[in-house]
C-alpha cells in the first residue's frame, strides 16, 4: 500500500526528548516500511526515517526559538498534503483536527488517530460538525466524552521489541517518575509516596512553560523538604532504558483521563512493574498483580510499593511482548486501512494512472 503518515511538527519524528505522539508515528512508519509498504512521512526536516520524508519545516517547532506560532507551519503541512493527496491509498493523520475540512470529500481513505484528551468542551461542536471522519482511539476510555462519531477502532500503542531491553535484576533501589511536570500527572503524589515509604524517588521529567508556576510553587518546594527525592530533568531515549530498567517500580500517579500513557508500556518493556492510579486508560493497560498494581489512593500506592517484590519481571516483559509490540500495533492499523471504504478504490485508481502513464495495462 502507498501510505502517508502525517505527523505534528512540535517534535521531530522520532523526538529527541519528550514527545509521545511523534514517537508512536515513528514506530508505525518504520514498521510499515519494514513490512514492505511504500510510506511517505510528512514531518519536520530534522526527522529520521527509512520512509520518504517530506520536510515541512527545518527543525521541530518546540526546539526552534524563532517559532512563535505553530499554526502557520501546520497550514503549510496541510497544503503539502493537499497537493500530493492523489499519490496515496491511505492518509493517516496524527494532528488531531486541523485537517478535517480538507479531507471531508475523501474521508473514506483517511484515518485519524486521536492522541490527546477529548473531554474539552470546545471539541464537542467540532466533532458534531465532522461526524463521518474515520477516527481511531488509543484506548476505549478515551472515547467516553465524545459525541457520536465514526469510531472505526481502538489501537493501543506498541513499541519495537528491541527498543528497551528487559532488566531482570535491577541495580537501583529507587522508584521512578518519568514524563512531564504538570498538575494532571501528579508528581506531588509521587513525592508523597516516596516520603511515606522512605524509598528514593528519581524524577525524570520536562517542564513546559505552561507548568513553570506549578513547578516553582508546588513541586520544587516539596523536593527541597524531601531529601530522598531527586529531580534529574528531561532524559533522552538512550537514558530511558537504564533509568526505567534499574528502577524497582514506576510511579504513574495521574489524576486525569489519560488517553494512553506510553511510559507504562516503556516500563513494562524493561520488566519494571507499574504502580498506577485508576484513571483513564490505566485499567486497560495494567494487569493488576501481573504487570503492576492499580491503586486509588496514596495509601494504597504505599502498600503496593511494599509488594513490588511479588511481581515477576520476566512476566512483565512477556505481557508487554504479547500486548504492546509494534508488530501488534501495525497489524491493527493495517486491518483498519484495508477496511476503509475508499482505500481499495484509491489503490486501483492510482495503479491505473501509473499504468496509463507508462503505457502498461492493468486489470482492476
UniProtKB/TrEMBL annotation:
Keyword entries, A-Z: Transferase
Highest taxon in the source lineage: Bacteria
Annotated Glycosyl transferase family domain residues: 173-298
One annotated GO molecular function: glycosyltransferase activity
Domain spans labelled Glycosyltransferase subfamily 4-like N-terminal: 18-121
Pfam family, one: Glycos_transf_1
Protein name per UniProt: Glycosyltransferase involved in cell wall biosynthesis
Amino acid at each position: 500500500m502507498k501510505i502517508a503518515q502525517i505527523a505534528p511538527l512540535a517534535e521531530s519524528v522520532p523526538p529527541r526528548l519528550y514527545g509521545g505522539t511523534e514517537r508512536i508515528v515513528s514506530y508505525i512508519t518504520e514498521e510499515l516500511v519494514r513490512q514492505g509498504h511504500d510510506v511517505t512521512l510528512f514531518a519536520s526536516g530534522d526527522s529520521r526515517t527509512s520512509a520518504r520524508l517530506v520536510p515541512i519545516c527545518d527543525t521541530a517547532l518546540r526546539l526552534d526559538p524563532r517559532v512563535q506560532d505553530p499554526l502557520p507551519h501546520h497550514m503549510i503541512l496541510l497544503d503539502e498534503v493537499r497537493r500530493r493527496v492523489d499519490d496515496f491509498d491511505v492518509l493517516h493523520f496524527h494532528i488531531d483536527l486541523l485537517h478535517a475540512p480538507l479531507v471531508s470529500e475523501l474521508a473514506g481513505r483517511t484515518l485519524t488517530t486521536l492522541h490527546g484528551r477529548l473531554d474539552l468542551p470546545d471539541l464537542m461542536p467540532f466533532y458534531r460538525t465532522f461526524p463521518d471522519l474515520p477516527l481511531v482511539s488509543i484506548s476505549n476510555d478515551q472515547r467516553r466524552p465524545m459525541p457520536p462519531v465514526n469510531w472505526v477502532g481502538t489501537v493501543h500503542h506498541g513499541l519495537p521489541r528491541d527498543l528497551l531491553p528487559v532488566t531482570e535484576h535491577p541495580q537501583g533501589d529507587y522508584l521512578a517518575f518519568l514524563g512531564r511536570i504538570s498538575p494532571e500527572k501528579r508528581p506531588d503524589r509521587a513525592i508523597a509516596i516516596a516520603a511515606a515509604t522512605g524509598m528514593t524517588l528519581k524524577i525524570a521529567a520536562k517542564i513546559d512553560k505552561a507548568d513553570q508556576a506549578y513547578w516553582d510553587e508546588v513541586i520544587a518546594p516539596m523536593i527541597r523538604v524531601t531529601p530522598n527525592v531527586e529531580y534529574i530533568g528531561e532524559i533522552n531515549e538512550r537514558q530511558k532504558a537504564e533509568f526505567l530498567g534499574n528502577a524497582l517500580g514506576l510511579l504513574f500517579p495521574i489524576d486525569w483521563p489519560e488517553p494512553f500513557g506510553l511510559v507504562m508500556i516503556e516500563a513494562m518493556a524493561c520488566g519494571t512493574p507499574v504502580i498506577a492510579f485508576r484513571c483513564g486508560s490505566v485499567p486497560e493497560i495494567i494487569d493488576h498483580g501481573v504487570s503492576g498494581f492499580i491503586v486509588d489512593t496514596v495509601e494504597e500506592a504505599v502498600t503496593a510499593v511494599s509488594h513490588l517484590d511479588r511481581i515477576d519481571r520476566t512476566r512483565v516483559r512477556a505481557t508487554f511482548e504479547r500486548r504492546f509490540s509494534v508488530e501488534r500495533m501495525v497489524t491493527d492499523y493495517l486491518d483498519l486501512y484495508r477496511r476503509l471504504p475508499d482505500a481499495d478504490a484509491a489503490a486501483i485508481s492510482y495503479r491505473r494512472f501509473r499504468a496509463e502513464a507508462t503505457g502498461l495495462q492493468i486489470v482492476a
